[in-house]
Amino acid sequence: MVKTDEKSINSDNAAIFALPSYLKQRKSLVDKALDNSLSIKKPETIYQAMRYSLLAGGKRLRPILCLATCELTGGSIDMAMPTACALEMIHTMSLIHDDLPAMDNDDYRRGKLTNHKVYGEDIAILAGDGLLAYAFEYVAANTYDIPAERIVRVIACLGRTVGAAGLVGGQVLDLESEGKPDISSQTLTFIHTHKTGALLEASVVSGAILAGASAEDITKLSQYAQNIGLAFQIIDDILDITATDEELGKTAGKDLQAQKATYPSLWGIEKSQTHAQKLIDDAIAQLATYEEKAEPLRAIANYIIIRNH
Amino acid sequence: MVKTDEKSINSDNAAIFALPSYLKQRKSLVDKALDNSLSIKKPETIYQAMRYSLLAGGKRLRPILCLATCELTGGSIDMAMPTACALEMIHTMSLIHDDLPAMDNDDYRRGKLTNHKVYGEDIAILAGDGLLAYAFEYVAANTYDIPAERIVRVIACLGRTVGAAGLVGGQVLDLESEGKPDISSQTLTFIHTHKTGALLEASVVSGAILAGASAEDITKLSQYAQNIGLAFQIIDDILDITATDEELGKTAGKDLQAQKATYPSLWGIEKSQTHAQKLIDDAIAQLATYEEKAEPLRAIANYIIIRNH
Q1: If phi over 0 gives left and psi between -120 and 50 gives alpha, with beta otherwise, what is residue B293?
Q2: If you measure CA to CA, which chain B residue comes closest to A94?
Q3: What is the ipTM, given to two decimal places?
């Protein structure tokens, strides 16, 4: 029996996964959980600043991936929701700090003023710190009905993902590469596998760990995530050239202005697009054994290549 | 049998705990563990920046308290060392971010240039983020031979301590109170119980959790820590007035310059000293049932009141 809210029928009568309604429903669950995760206490300013960026919209791709792999490998949404929220807290923290004047110096993010433009630099730095610390607390204090060993593994995974071996390391090499348009594609890939890829990988892997997935499953899902992560970044670089400010919800053309090396600047737009497509095809190939159950992950992979923001 | 390296004999022939050699030996263990905790990888800048501040000296009071309460409640140094290191990583991160130009704008810390003066603001922000994330990873990935439930509890405790309900919240109220010399002693105490007290309390409590201490033990030790934390801050405020730059290893007289409310500015030096002494007496009273085993904690409490830096 095909559920009409998640499937539609194409001309060959085969079931096609209806991604938009799936994403919408999952985003709504995640938004609600995030809203509930953080209430305002004293001193109010810091909680308001944390909530301002945490609830500023966004696709919630990382939480959605975490929930999806947890379900795929036999777990439930409830099991994974605290970790899903933590992933978005970490992602938000990295955006707040990246936007600071001492870093990328951005005034807009997701179509809204950046955190430091509203609350000042000092509070923005502390809001990021607060979200990062709360991410770990939230997983540790709110994950129920799961062996504690799995929670400890998830926390080690999240920590590695944010730190110098992940996000932070990627951002450092990114800063060091600014104004050097001649950097190699190896360096560019290091930046992106750390700055973007690591957290997408952690999203997928943490969902699987929580569900108690096998090492083999985790390897496949990890490969899937690395591939979509890099494809995501290549498409981001292309959109920075081809999309408008309005479509992006942030300033377009920043990479060119900052003389940043990007995949299109190294390879041209067409070759970049071909490479992104190959990465997505390889990602989808990792999902073969899961058959129909992996439809959400396949559809998300395909969505990355066709998005326009 | 009294060990000569930890005890000395006073004129009444009673054993007196030899704090200096105890602190020296524990600091040496902690320094070695911290040095081993973080090796330099690519991109080197960020690891160097993290190590610069993490290994910049300091009394290692938080790790030493964690090891001491773990031993006091039946655990071992090995059990607690990863958490002890994490506490120092968190403490270091809070110092790096507090020293930033957007915050307290300090050029010197522990007699050395602050992180952002050496590495720049961007790297200093990221070094703090990296240390914070690594603290959680380090506990989760390196704590052995302990039920995972205890590790999860410790991580929840550390997260709460750093976040808006702890360090970050204290720092926000501190920033908001700057230039307002008329704030109440209630607000001042909120600032310090969050900014300094919370991490000292977490140091003591986490050691006890790792050892599997009873709820009753944890309550007593938590009270001990809150008291010495507040006393520590009162003495800090007094030293800012009475000590030299050289004794402090940082700029003295900053509070007066920044028109910060402090305990001496509210109560005068003498009343502040009396209150600190009362807090220490109450802290020591919490340790009565542990008899001789709590000598290190008693000696540390007494040391806080007589230190000159």
Answers
A1: alpha
A2: B129
A3: 0.92
